[in-house]
Amino acid sequence: MKRSIYLLALAFGVSSAYAQETILPARPQDKPVYLTNAVIHVGNGQVIENGTVAFAKGKITAVGAGVTAAGDATVLDMKGQHVYPGIIAPDTKLGLVEFESVRATIDAREVGEINPSIRSIISYNTDSKVINTLRSNGILLAQVTPEGGIVSGTSSVVQLDAWNWEDAAYKTDNALHFFIPRLVNTGGRGFRGPQPRDPVKEGLEKVETVRVFFREAKAYLQENKHAATNIKFEAMRRLFNREQKLFIHCELVKEMLIAIDFAKEFNMDVVIVGGADSWQITDLLKQNNIAVVLTQPHSLPLMADDDIDQPYKTAAQLQKAGVLFCLSNEGFWQQRNLGFEAGTASAFGLSREEALSAVTLNAAKILGIDKIAGSLETGKDANIAVSTGDMLDMKSSVITRAFIQGREINLDNKQHQLYEKYQQKYGIK
């Protein structure tokens, strides 16, 4: 008996030693809050010096330089700090993957090639320890995206302060995801591993399989009665009704031309995800009203003859051409650097406020949530980040407060706790 108690105590001690931080979701906002004396970056290009943002019951009630507090409100003096809309991270595996090397923690992929009925939201893990590292850099919303196969399923937008996936859901099933195979022959080894003898031919055959599937689904949905219910075809209904967008993942011009053809043939709202070569066809993208989610801005050029700084300046070229775009970062933990990548884009042609819009309001427009998020405007959700410096600058950005739907959230995380722990160990603090 004593031995059993000893082993239990030992196990508890070991588990405690390796325990991660426990951060509870914040309680709903109970009274109005005023953030005063701040430099307000609205997110739509406007900057208000020495301004105030007021919000109550989770919604922004006033923004401007002449706003004064009234009634039983909490007034927080920002003393010249910068107030921003929370950053939005599109196209991420956040909450679907915890450790990339441990299969049991990966819920981003499903078996099969065409799975439009798969919903990423129900696999989203609100207890992921990665989430807290993003929030401390001002990322407050994310689009949780499935992978695997060619048509991988639907993504959903989540807010990053929740008990479970139902609480986290911000906009469910906002987009269906189609991954076009890489249509380039790289001599037997490609961007995604070993390639077949003729990768272009095989890739085009897969694209044609998807095209046929879309045609069959459209015909099925036009029928008044069905002999049998087809779950995959039924999952396409919102896409054909334009209640849902089609996010097509591709990089090369020839792949993006296929995406444009899909938009024309099926009259769908198409968004290109990746878009490394989008700078070459900005006129076509503009003509067909196709938005772009630029992924991995901090990377080498896709092709050997591209300018070495092409990934940095593509955003400015899309902006100049009038193409709606936003920035993203592949993976999940890497998303914490999204604001800093926007800062890099501002050094290569974007203005500072255009770069901010690329990770806030533009992202909200592309994800279909711009009526309630993406900028600090009256009536929108109070998703707010406060920084002592420029939130897009790694050297000066220190997020001091953050609010999601008016709730002030805890900005602690395991990495910060380790930082403080070893400061004490070595007498630095």
From TrEMBL:
Show where the Amidohydrolase-related domain sits.
347-407
Q: Does the keyword Signal apply?
A: yes
Which keywords, in A-to-Z order, does the entry hold?
Signal
Q: Does the keyword Transferase apply?
A: no
* InterPro entries per the UniProt record, alphabetical: Amidohydro-rel, Metal-dep_hydrolase_composite, Metal_Hydrolase, Metallo-dep_Hydrolase
What Gene3D superfamilies would the database entry show? Metal-dependent hydrolases
Provide the leader sequence positions.
1-19
In the record, what terms sit under GO molecular function?
hydrolase activity, acting on carbon-nitrogen (but not peptide) bonds
Name under which the protein is recorded: Imidazolonepropionase
The organism named in the record is Chitinophaga eiseniae
Q: What lineage, starting at the top, does this entry show?
A: Bacteria, Pseudomonadati, Bacteroidota, Chitinophagia, Chitinophagales
